[in-house]
User: Fold this.
Amino acid sequence: MKQLKKIFIAMLISLSALLAAGILPAGGQVHPEVRLKDLGRFEGVRPNQLVGMGLVTGLQGTGDKGELVAAMMGNMVENFGISMNRKDLKSKNSAVVTITCELPPFARSGETIDVTISTVGDAKSLEGGVLLQTPLKAANGSVYAVAQGPVSIGGFSASAAGSSLSKNVSTTGRIPNGAIVERETSWGAGTDGRIRFFLKRPDFTTADRVAAIINRNYGSVATVTDAGCVDIAIPHAFRGNPSGFIASSELLRVRPDSVARVVINERTGTVTVGGDVRISEVAVAHGNLTVSVGIDRTVSQPEPLSLGETKVIETATITADEERGSMALLNATTTVDDVVATPDAVWLLSQRTIYRLPREPQQEAMHRPAPRFTSCRVDGRPVTMGEVTFLNADQRDVELHFRVALPERFGQEQYRVRMGSGRFSQIGAGRLDLFNLGPGRQRIEVEAGMPGGGWGPVGSLVLDVAPRLHERLWARLLAGLIVVLLVAAFLRWREFRLRERLATQRDLDRLQMQALTSQLEPHFVFNALNGIQSYLARNDRDAGMRYLARFSRLMRGLLETGQSRVIPLAHEVELLEHYCTLE
Assistant:
């Protein structure tokens, strides 16, 4: 019981050193983001175990002595066409062995793999042995590889005159690149348009995050089957090319989740505490006790004329100085991160004992914790936070919660926040509501008021809001291109209509000229001019003037009616009267 108590105290002291040195994270991310390929494997990507039984020869008298090796040697001799009595075979230089190996996924015919050799009978050592050609089978009974070659062991064994010496195990060995792949394994995953992803450590939260990050990059194609499996429908862009989809998706980064854990090394006293470990609510009363132990040296002289000797006498003095105690409150929601953030001391708590590790004065003066974002909610539902928190296009109203690790100011915190490069605005609670966020990355910074005045370091969170369809650059470019095409089409249409109108006007003018030409018959004009000439020849001036007046009125009427589509009947009758009179 005393030994266990000493170990427990040693582990607590080690944990104190870790906390005081700041090795555990303070307000940061507990689990970093890792690649998808480091969290698990895709369906069908797995090795296959192979096993075979063969014969090792060339041993230095350390082989088997049973009937099994004799039977195998007899079968081998008969296979080579040699007939002899099996009792004449000596087996001390041979041993029956089992050969095991793992056929890696996608191994091609002709590639070599390592094999492990181990004895079956009572052979003492495989040193110097050579494995004869042995087929290696899988669980379905099919041969997938053939092994052969000299055996390499990692130990030795020797004995003489009743004494023996050995190191490591000499009945097990390896043959590097000792097996040749003869048959390839098939990979039929993704042929039906779906593929599954298996987690190495099943966890519902991690599986949900894996599905979320795949859906964010490829659309709604992933669903969580259980804690260890995510079913994925291969996107249309990768149909017929599942390898390309796997290569693209296994580079996605996910922040895995794990249970709160405390790992204790009983032998070394090392304690490793995860950042998610929480401490029960407790009120801690503590005080400083300083114990000083000193030594006073005095010289003792003997009496005169005595036979005594001069001696130096040491006297121990012990003084104790106890300071006034104080009290601090650690809430039930306090984590290991917050214990590190306690400004005056580091607290270690168990069910029955409270340990305190005071900070150095310079550490207390420099300790100014930064606020930490604890949750992000959209429409009342939590959103997974990371180094960059990704939000969908419809997640524009966000509720953020944050706090700072100052136990002496629980419930009285003061914060101020800002977005981007704007100015800080002071708020009283550890909650921030954001409405109608714009697309792109938004950086939110929070500062907390310190007990001694002023503001502490900045805690930040980056929100990456996916743009809506009309907010995307390609959509805006496409809309601009459509507008330009519409304007160009309108201008072309207008130009076409103008050209069509001009062509119609030209046709109209041509038709008018033709109509005018058809009305002005050349023979009539010639006769009218001859009539005027005859009047002038006879010196009948009055008749000539009346004839010329009627001819001019007829010509003017014809020219005027040539510009009109509709001619009044009276005007037509008047023109006919002039024409008939002139005729």
